Amino acid sequence: MPRTGTTVSFGMTEILRLACGKAGGGGTLRGPPCWQTGGMSVTDQVAAAPAAGEPCVLLKLGEIVLKGRNRQQFERLLRGNIRAAMKDTGLPVELLHREGVVVLTVARGERTQAEHAQAVDRVAQRVSDVPGIVRVCRAARVPKTPEAAAAAAVLLTAGTTGPFAVRARRRDKRFPVTSAELAVLIGKQVQAAHGLPVNLKHPDTEVFVEVDQREVFVFTGGQPGQGGLPVGMSGRAVALMSGGIDSPVAAYRMMRRGLRCYFLHFSGMPLTGPESIYKAYALVRGLDRFQGGSRLFVVPFGKAQQALASSGADRLQVVAQRRLMLKTAALLARRVGGAALITGDSLGQVSSQTLPNITALDDAVSLPILRPLLGWDKTEIMAEARRIGTLSISELPDQDCCTLLTPRRVETRARIDDLRRIEGRLDAGQLAERLAGTAQEYRLD
Ligand code: ATP
Ligand code: MG
Predict the structure, then answer these.
(1) Please, are residues 97 and 59 in contact by the beta-carbon 8 Å criterion?
(2) What is the Cα–Cα distance from 108 to 370, expressed in whole angstroms?
(3) What's the sign of the alpha-carbon dihedral 385, 389, 391, 393?
(4) 147 — alpha (psi -120 to 50), left (phi > 0) or beta?
(5) Which residue ranges have their beta carbon within 6 Å of ligand 1?
(6) What is the pTM for the complete model shown?
(7) Distance in angstroms (rounded) separating the CA atoms of residues 238 and 53
(8) Taking Cα atoms as reference points, which of 281, 283, 236, 280 lies closest to residue 262?
(9) What is the residue with the minimal CA distance to atom 14 of ligand 1?
(10) Containing domain of residue 439, as a range?
């Protein structure tokens, strides 16, 4: 995707404002999720009635629970990632591990009931960025009696309209009331309190009641989490970040599959200004909420591009540049223990991404190159970029290094032998070593 606009009228401040206001800081870009189905928020309800029990956040782990023998290891990793994310909230969050779910509570301290409930809302919001969780439910934790569960359900459904259904299940089968009996008992009380109709097939509001070993959790639908696997479960990789729309989405998709991403950006400096670096930094900052502790490497690439042009790359200039980027990335991957490279390539999107050219890129390095967007259309990629909050940053103008020295016609069927010949003339291996040596590292923690 060519990015135009050599006159760049924004600076680091602008980019950081975008990164913090729109993409960073625990998912503020999506607006506050409604943790309730009713008009009244949990905060109001809890403030109104102590019978609601202790406010907490209940997390459904989805795919992670299917992992058989490795499950414990995955759960340990997820708990560590959750704890790290919770540090951002500055709240005294306690993590309780229950069978198949994780529960987060906040020590009440000096907070009023309403302030306490708001703090728990903040926890729910922040944890919804952590991959490996399929659903984030704002729940009430009540004593283990049918009466307490019913009272919490009545409060939760206050302010809702339309039919409802109670879905009860017992993780503790010794609980004296069966799941079906419990659902009926609670349903009757909700009906009596609010006069709402029951519709088990198509309810507007679902009230979930889960009986655990020590307590009962009562909650409505909640919000979707990121899904996927905990970051770190699949190892590490270096993500090549251009500052465009595709590469941050590609990195995000691989984080969701458990890869910890180290980011690498090639700027056109000294032939261009530093604006593309600001963008890359802002993008990494926006993505950091999904993994924490991110690192960005920046390599000035302008001179190397000139060297390629001088060695007669001509129509192969773009593919040759990309191969040199990949070689440099492979060296940095070795430094950080990365086992793969990630790019935002999408088949046929631009001339450097035809099948022959992609094959020629694969030939440049022995590490696998992961291309999660290979089968995605631009509109799909843009929708995802909007959802994860990177689109507005990617769309800022900058001078990308790839737009420098672009030949009038780009080769769509690059031949590996030709590329190797060009690289032989300037000892691309050594050049990549030198480039990796110039990488500047920015840590986001
Ligand atoms: P993006 O794919 O991020 O929108 P783009 O489509 O303009 O940008 P291309 O020139 O098609 O990027 O490059 C495809 C991929 O190569 C990018 O997704 C990215 O992974 C990598 N890449 C390109 N330019 C750079 C760069 N300056 N720094 C790091 N990686 C880059
Ligand atoms: Mg692209």
Answers:
(1) no
(2) 45
(3) negative
(4) alpha
(5) 1, 240-242, 244-247, 264-266, 325, 343-345, 350, 352, 400-402
(6) 0.88
(7) 46
(8) 236
(9) 345
(10) 12-24+229-443
Q: What digits encode the pLDDT tens for the residues 125-157?
A: 999 999 999 999 999 999 999 999 999 999 999
Any idea what the CATH number is for the domain that residue 277 is in? 3.40.50.620
Residue pair 235/260 in contact by the 8 Å Cβ criterion = yes
Ligand 1 mean position to 370 CA, how many Å?
Answer: 13
Whether 179 maps to a domain, the answer reads yes
Say if CB 208 and CB 137 are below 8 A apart: yes
Q: Which band of pLDDT confidence, cut at 50, 70 and 90, is reported for residue 348?
A: confident
Same domain, 328 and 407: yes
Query: Are 163 and 122 in the same domain?
Result: yes
pLDDT tens-digit map of 371-413: 999 999 999 999 999 999 999 999 987 766 566 667 667 778 8
Q: What is the pLDDT of residues 1-13, one digit of tens each?
A: 333 333 333 454 5
Query: What ligand is nearest to the CA atom of residue 249?
Result: 1
Tokens representing residue 289 in the block = 């909420």
For residues 198 and 334, membership in a common domain is answered with no
Q: Which atom of ligand 1 is nearest to the CA of 239?
A: 20
| Under 8 Å between Cβ of 318 and 1 | no
CB atoms within 10 A of CB 378: 13
